[in-house]
UniProtKB/TrEMBL annotation:
Secretion signal span: 1-22
InterPro entries xref list: Adhesion/Biosynth-related, FAS1_dom_sf, FAS1_domain
Protein name: Fasciclin domain-containing protein
PROSITE patterns hit by this protein: FAS1
Length: 184
């Protein structure tokens, strides 16, 4: 019986690895992100994005980000949220601050599908800087520093580096960032 259990466990692991390989997954937060899943279904599995997922739930944006899209999400890591002043995240997660939280989160969403190639093309087209409108009505500015380094500047001048590009989803793409972007 033990041998059968081992064989079944090994078979399940091999099947998961084959599926991940077949779907050309990207690892984020220790987990494979599947292009066949939507933004939310992938994000909930990332150990690096538990704060973001909690914030999306508190803001009531789960159904929106499960929608058709396409959306490009610039997803701050838990470490990015920890750079905010002490108590900020806890305060934003309170029900009375839902509108502010929603504005901050939708500021990280750009309508359309902007992978590395699309961002780089926009930057080159606009002479080294590209501005893209966010779902909250603000603007994000993108610049390139080196061959594979695009960074994002918010309306207040805060800069976020994109650490993981091109995490394709069924309804868009996620680019992982190291700083929370803040609208004016």
């Amino acid at each position: 019986m033990r041998k059968l259990s081992y064989v079944l466990t090994l078979s399940a692991a091999l099947l998961a690895a084959n599926i991940a390989y077949a779907e050309n997954t990207v690892m984020v937060g220790g987990q494979s992100m599947y292009p066949s899943k939507d933004i939310i279904d992938n994000a909930v599995n990332s150990a690096d994005h538990t704060t973001l997922v909690a914030a999306v739930k508190a803001a009531g944006l789960v159904q929106t980000l499960k929608g058709k899209g396409p959306f490009t999400v610039f997803a701050p890591t838990n470490a990015a949220f920890s750079k905010l002043p002490a108590g900020t995240v806890e305060t934003l997660l309170k029900p009375e601050n839902k509108a502010t939280l929603t504005k901050i989160l939708t500021y990280h969403v750009v309508p359309g599908r902007y992978d590395f190639a699309a961002l780089e093309t926009a930057i080159r087209k606009d002479n080294g800087k590209a501005e893209l409108p966010t779902a909250s009505g603000g603007m994000l500015t993108f610049s390139q520093n080196g061959l594979r380094n695009i960074y994002v500047t918010d309306d207040g001048g805060h800069v976020a580096n994109i650490s993981t590009y091109d995490v394709f989803q069924s309804n868009g793409v996620i680019n992982v960032i190291d700083t929370v972007l803040l609208p004016k």
